[in-house]
Amino acid sequence: MSHATPHYASFRSIGAYVPEKVLTNADLEKMVDTSDEWIVKRTGIKERHIAADDEATSDMGAKAGQTAIERAGLNAEDIDLVLCATVTPDYFNMPSTACIVSDKLGIKNVQAFDISAACSGFVYALSVAKAFIESGMKRNVLVVGAEKFSSIVDYTDRTTCILFGDGAGAAVISATENKDEAFVDIHASADGSYADFLVTPAPGSVNPVSQKVIDEGLQYVQMKGNETFKLAVKTLTKDVKEILEKNNISAETIPHFVPHQANYRIIKAVGDALKMREDQVVLTVHKYGNTSAASIPMAINDIWESGRLRQGDMMLLDTFGGGLTWASALLPFAGKSL
Ligand code: UT7
Q1: What amino acid positions are annotated as catalytic residues?
Q2: Does the CB atom of residue 200 touch ligand 1 within 6 A?
Q3: pTM above 0.90, yes or no
Q4: pLDDT tens readout for residues 229-245
Q5: Of 16, 73, 203, 297, which alpha carbon lies 20 to 30 A from 64's?
Q6: Out of 3.40.47.10, 2.60.40.10, 3.40.50.2000, 3.50.50.60, which CATH number does the structure's domain 185-290+301-332 have?
Q7: Are 43 and 35 in contact (CB under 8 A)?
Q8: 306 burial class (0-12, 13-18, 19+ CB within 10 angstroms)?
């Protein structure tokens, strides 16, 4: 009986795209009853980027994906699976945004589909890429996290409109025989009993588009902010501690803790619970706000482009979002340093 060489999944490259237009707290002060002081104190956000009217989620995802493929030293023909994590797809029913991203990148005749796990989408997608590669079914997976969150935000609702931004990030996950490059572990979980904490009530089979939907603004994101906040801190702290313990890795040895960028206070609380030093914690929430599934890959791209993320560096990812969903991952960066 022959034994095939085992395939491990490795994180080969990162890319991102940030739309040009900036929406500052001062701009929001003119739109709703809020203040720069409140937003900075409660969230850490100073500004966020907003896609152009004619810029779709797939446009941003394709740009991030192109960069990631180039930085992996690959071509479109090398990619054999495209995953797009998003809750603001180009079209809510079909086709999937992953199909459109593939077409824009010239990736032909390969499996492509979307992952719907809100802010946890990118880490969920990494777990899918890992499984496809470890099973030997695929060799080079393009994982995109892209959101035009501004398309589902009600800019008269001060409790949500200050939080979210648009953007995209992407990574190439490739097969390797080298165990040192391999993903260490991913935990991903969900609890649908909290579905009403973060929800866009329409359009969908519960509320198909109707005049009532429009009149009541059911197409916009609704969030139980404070309840979500408390559960996020509790769940993330427990989850991140568990993944470290399970793999016998101590928090102080992780050079890059890359949390989902929803709120500086959540990041700080989890970082403090792990006794993380400031230099370990990656922060982009002040300049991008919460970009949902794009948040973690955009943050990884930031540290790569600033030269902080080096080949072989261990990353600890953690995220929490609508569903509710949450996930954490331990993996080395296996791409080239800048
Ligand atoms: O990414 C997916 C996961 N999402 C999250 O993790 C988000 C989690 N939640 C949060 O980040 C925070 O809950 C928020 C930033 C959304 C809100 O902060 P909070 O400390 O939980 O505030 P709160 O909702 O308890 O509201 C406190 C007060 C309220 O006024 P009263 O009732 O005390 O008079 C709000 O009406 O702040 C008021 N408020 C605002 N004031 C000025 C809410 N939004 C605003 C605003 N500007 N934009």
Answers
A1: 119, 260, 290
A2: no
A3: yes
A4: 999 999 999 999 999 99
A5: 203
A6: 3.40.47.10
A7: no
A8: exposed
